[in-house]
Amino acid sequence: MKDILVVCPQPRDVQAIAAAGLDARYRIHYAGADLDAVDLFDPEAFLEECDAIPADGVVGTKDRSALLASLVAQRRGLPGPAPRALAACQFKPAARALELAAASEATPRFALVDGTTAFTPPLFVKPVVGRLSQGARRIDDLSQLATLRPTDPYLEGYARIASLAGLDPGCVHGFIAEELLAGEEVTLEGYAYAEKITVIGVTDSVKYPGTNSFERFEYPSAISGERVTELADVASRVMSFVGFDGGLFNVEFFVPAEGPAQITEINGRIASQFAGLVQAVDGRSTYEALFALACGDDPEWEARPHSGFALSYCLRVFADAHVRDVPHPQDDLELLVRPGLRLSEQGANDAQSYRLCIFSAWGRTREEAVVRARARATSLHFDLDPV
User: Fold this and answer.
1) Whether the Cβ atoms of residue 28 and residue 4 lie closer than 8 Å to each other
2) What is the pLDDT of residues 43-60, one digit of tens each?
3) What are the b/e assignments for 39-62, b being 16+ CB within 10 Å?
4) Is the dihedral of CA 154, 316, 374, 223 positive or negative?
């Protein structure tokens, strides 16, 4: 039985690992706390602590923990993606430059924000290093650039870790401007093993009407097989050019009605929120592939007939409030807020909304899954006082 070291796990990891039965196939060792829940973290000391933990493979499932896992693996001579390849995915200016070189037809126009841009609004801006959709927003007038806030406590912690992978800590602040895109938003997830790319599946991203906030993620995608083939070709070229190997990745795209799909971003890690969806529909968890790759093994992922449709639903509100009470804990409910604080004082949120919880739903049809998810969302009671 092999040993797997899970670096800075999030609660979702523990549940997904148990749901996939991996704790019966591997000896699991958890090290560190979810970095989104701690204020101070010393990456150098943490790497030294990990030296004493048995491991045939090391994994992390968020940007910072995945980068830490790659550093641990490199330090100990274990399989896994190279830290420099992960850092290149996470630092958007570098990622965009690599995407342009590998798949120019799928790369939107972009430029660093320095008070001016190389093209005129409307456009979209993002932090050069980000998480979820924090700090990302549409710009309709260049005067709005002056309202951007280039500092974020997350960045300091990220910079300390990324510097160990060769990224200049001083470059993590700032924003990148990108061409405004339109079309269906999807995420292709796959893995690289022995320099060969394998596609696991494609998930649709659906927003609350009239907003830029995600309501749900649906698996499998509704896009055509021809489009999936196109996305797979782009992802293969880009991730190979980045030098990414030995791990799971996901690539987010806009798929317009006509013309080539456009890359939104590349992520050198598992899409952990989608693992339960893939398991419900395809009968196999992506965490299984993650563990195999971490140990240097081929996951040997093969396409299977889909069994229904699954989705991950994110319940949000669009105004700040004080949280008085939340639903009772449930095994399949990921609560993102707690009583006693304002929504704006907790959680990772986009510019328009506040996340309350995440849960999954399954249906024999896509429509049935959506109906079930919305019915459950309506039934969940969050006691919120407007502010």
Assistant:
1) yes
2) 999 999 999 999 999 999
3) eebebeebbeebeeeebbbbbbbb
4) negative
Taking each helix axis as running N to C, give the angle between helix 11-19 and helix 275-282, from 0 to 180 degrees, rounded to the nearest 10.
Answer: 10
Q: For position 145, what pLDDT does the model report?
A: 83
For 165, the 3-state DSSP assignment is coil
State the pairing for strand pair 2-7/309-317.
unpaired
Which has the closest alpha carbon to 345: 354, 333, 358?
Answer: 354
SS3 14: helix
User: What is the dotted CATH code of the domain comprising 309-386?
Assistant: 3.90.1170
Is residue 148 within 8 Å of 113, Cβ to Cβ?
A: yes
Helix 11-19 / helix 286-294 crossing angle, nearest 10 deg:
100
Whether the predicted pLDDT of 281 surpasses 80: yes
The pLDDT of residue 153: 79
Token pair, residue 351, equals 């510019």
317-366: pLDDT as tens digits: 999 999 999 999 898 999 999 999 999 999 888 888 999 999 999 999 99
DSSP per residue over 22-64, as a string?
Answer: GGGTEEEEEES--GGG-S---HHHHHHHHTTS--SEEE--SHH
Instruction: At 92, list the tokens.
Output: 């958007």
Q: Is 223 helix (H, G, I), strand (E, B) or coil?
A: coil
Q: Residue 375: how many CB atoms within 10 A of its CB?
A: 10
Rounded distance between C-alpha atoms, residue 143 and residue 19, angstroms: 49
Q: What is the pLDDT of residues 362-381, one digit of tens each?
A: 999 999 999 999 999 999 99
Round to whole Å and give the CA distance between 220 and 282.
9
Q: Domain 2-85 belongs to what topology?
A: Rossmann fold (3.40.50)
* Residue 26 near residue 77 (C-beta atoms within 8 A): no
- What CA–CA distance (Å, rounded) separates 135 from 386? 23
Boundaries of every domain in the chain: 2-85, 309-386
Cβ atoms of residues 4 and 56 within 8 Å: yes
Identify the DSSP state of 365. S
- Other C-beta atoms within 10 Å of 344: how many? 12
- The answer to whether the beta carbons of residues 295 and 353 sit under 8 Å apart is no
